[in-house]
Amino acid sequence: MKIAHNILTSMALAVLCVLFASCNWQQDVAPMPIYDGEANTTIAELLAMHTIGSLDSYDHLSEDSADIIISGIVTSSDEQGNCYKYINIEDSTGGIQIKINSSTLFNKYRLGQRVYVKCNGLDLGDYRRLPQMGIWANGKMESIPSNKAYQYIYCDGPCQTVEPFITLTSVPAKASELPAEYFNRLVRLEGATFEDGGHSTYSDAAAATSHNINMSGGGTVVLRTSNYANFRAAMLPEGTGTVVGILTRYNDDIQMVIRDLNDVQGFVAPPHFESIFTVNYPNAFNEGWTQTASGNEWNVLSNTSFNGFYITANGATDSWLMSPAINLSNVQSSVISFTHRAPSGGDNTMMKLYYSANGGTDWIEVPISEFSTSETDFTFNIPTDAQSSQFRFAYRFTGNSKSWYISSIAISALVTK
């Protein structure tokens, strides 16, 4: 029995060796699909077979009529959840949306894949004037059942590089004013700005969301994003850039659907003023603020009616209040702002502002022209040559009486995100 076992083992090993040798240690690869027919109808010719009605409508493409076969390149992808249960294909004449009841279409109908579609037996119609093909039922265009899609749609050959068929820098006010062949096709919007850029996400969690894209040459395109898109919680970019996507329409609104965030390119936030320095008044003297006082000193007052510095003189006083060093070497167009008041009256001989570019070794006076017993706002544009890593500013109070209250101190600068 042991001898028989050894013989069987040897035979099994020999068979395995032959099998591995025949495969040359390479994994078998499924053959590339090849369609054995030809297209006999362009997408534009197909679309001409249906007249868009005032509301959703359709035409049945009879099984008994001559074959209607179109071919196109897949330009959509549901991999990120934003092109739900449909594919878009286009040829050189136009584009069409084909509804299929599957949420993982990207696995079979890949971006750039050529497909052939036997249209007989399907319904050609529209949803709010956007052409679609599928199965008309229950008063609307519904999806081709996923287990029957293979009867109509055939993949052919390797995937191709997909490029937008046109670049738009402006759009008209109405979808009806655009050529019909623009819709259901991959389009590039150049010079595009999101109206809500930097303030809103692509979609709310509860429902699909619309956001306006304003075009540099004029006009608006509405970006539609599903609340099931993987990128729905990402922030819309600021600035101006390029958006690539499937151009659609909803009645007379021009709309677009992107496939993923790679379709949003080149956006740079415009420079904008942002606060880069403020004062935590209760802890100011522990956070770098210093003073040199002759006579009365500077103090901090923090309550519901006032939050800031103040000084009151009841004798000869010459007191400086100096900020910590502030790094302005990497910003542009910086501005000091503050609110101040002199309840007992005052003038610019008693109350002065200074700045220093070298940490306080040298001080340059900034004239303050207005003083009031009510709160007054003051701003000063910091000179470019003073925007150093050791920038400081200071308040100087001199006199035998009077008071000075200063609050809302801040430095803002033009920054780019």
Structure characterization notes:
With 417 residues, the protein is mainly beta. It has three domains: 114 residues, OB fold (Dihydrolipoamide Acetyltransferase, E2P) (Beta Barrel); 104 residues, OB fold (Dihydrolipoamide Acetyltransferase, E2P) (Beta Barrel), CATH 2.40.50; 142 residues, Galactose-binding domain-like (Jelly Rolls, Sandwich), CATH 2.60.120.260. Strands 1, 2, 3, 4, 5, 6, 7, 8, 9 and 10 form a ten-stranded mixed β-sheet that branches. Strands 18, 20, 21, 23, 26 and 28 form a six-stranded antiparallel β-sheet that branches. A hairpin with a 2-residue loop joins strand 15 and strand 16. It is rod-shaped. The protein starts with a helix and ends with a strand.
Q: Give the N-to-C terminal Cα separation.
A: 80 Å
Helix/strand order, N-terminal first: HHEEEEEEEEEEEEEEEEEEEEEEEEEEEE
Q: Level of helix content?
A: under 10%
What count of helical segments does DSSP give? 2
Name of the CATH class of the largest domain: Mainly Beta
Q: Main β-sheet, in a few words?
A: 10 strands, mixed
CATH superfamily of the largest domain: Galactose-binding domain-like
What structural class results from the helix and strand content?
mainly beta
Count every beta strand, where a strand is a DSSP E run of 2 or more residues: 28
